[in-house]
User: Fold these one by one.
Assistant:
Number 1:
Amino acid sequence: MKRILLAVFLLSLLLTGCTSTPEAKAKLWTSEPVISRTEYGNVAVEGIVRNDGQETAYFIQAEATFYDSRGNMLTTTSAFLDELAVGQTWKYSIMYLGLKPSQEVSKANVEVTHSL
């Protein structure tokens, strides 16, 4: 009986797999995003990303979502960086490329993601 239970247990491990998720060793710190306007009326959101982790971060994406004063989403635009070594910083600047006039932009949220 014990052999049957052991065989069932081992078979279930083979069928379901035994995987673990590695802990991320690249840890990115991001500053608060700041909206800037040029003398020509263009709008961009700017910020800084720093790798405070133990390994290089790859394929970094800063995705900005722009909103009007009523909280309606206007558009989403991204900036990309291939890699960011430990201790290095990246100053991103993401231009507003929406269809509505840039004067309507009142807020922007930025989400930074990366791959290992």
Number 2:
Amino acid sequence: MLASKVTLLYHTNSEEQTIFHLIKKVRDMNATKDMLIAEILRLDRNLAGLLMGHGLHCVGCMMANNETLEQACQVHGVDADLLLNDINAYLDSTRALKE
């Protein structure tokens, strides 16, 4: 009985550590051109305003779940490299404020 409790405790702590590391990894993640718009918005919901400011009104669009940043930029005539730099600069600045 004690062995099963210890095993359960070990697995629980292991899962909690795994979840913690995954959350940290996502929080420290930078956007890439091949990420879906929806994935970028999951990094930080405030990126919606930045995307819209660049002419991508994909925030509520059905294509946000199926279209990469690069594809959306091509469709809307937006410079993907410039937008990507702005997104990652924003993410870096929010991380710096949290530290």
Number 3:
Amino acid sequence: MNYQEVSHAKLELVCRTLISCSCVYPKGGRKTLDSLAWSKKYEILSISRLDLRSYGLTTEQINHLSDEDMQRIAEELYHRYDLNSFAEDVVFIARLVLAEKGKETIND
């Protein structure tokens, strides 16, 4: 299993807990999302050599990094990120978005 597969699995688990995201309220009324909409994935984090350059590494340093090295960097970042904090952040931001839409009390 690679970094992206693990990240998607974690995100999918977190998103399943967001019951308040089960519906939206367009002008026409309440619309329940189907399972395909629930399983749609949204990329959260990626890393590229361009990112490394913008973070201060030199072109020469970056040229020495293989695809395997880049994968290792991505995996190390994944292991260092606190999943509990991530879940809390997801819920907090989702509630902010709902509040902006005037729907902060949906399925609380």
Number 4:
Amino acid sequence: MLRSLASESILPTGSRSYSAPASHTATTSLSGGSDKNRYFVSLGYLDNKGLLRVDGYSRYTLSSKLDITASDRVKTRAVAGYVYAAH
């Protein structure tokens, strides 16, 4: 199959324009608080290399959550997230 693709000029022969795909992932999070207040923050990174040099995908993520208990009847939650992706 690879030979037929190379003969159709999809994968150039004689040059190393492709490589074995690799993937890297990293995440970290922080959480804590007290009886009345809780927080959570998470950061993530994903980098997928494609088979061809022009392939690939990178993504950065940020998510956060804040819980506040003002009283037995009043509770508030704030949630926010952000994603940046590039091909």
